[in-house]
Amino acid sequence: MTLLFTIVLMIASCLMILLVLLHKGRGGGLSDMFGGGVSSSLGGSSVAERNLDRLTVGIGVIWFACVVALGLLLAY
Q: Is 27 helix (H, G, I), strand (E, B) or coil?
């Protein structure tokens, strides 16, 4: 059971990294350094941003549940 949660946690962690990097930059920072300022003038779809937000939150909940489950399994 611990192996299953560990594998799901690793997959969720990689997905979280990818999803966070896909988000549109909100201001001056690393996103502008890599061309985020240029692409912001194109105007992305707000529906796509909302779906990306929902997916990120969902993967975050799965990640958190795996961390808690592994903590409980390894405590006993």
A: coil
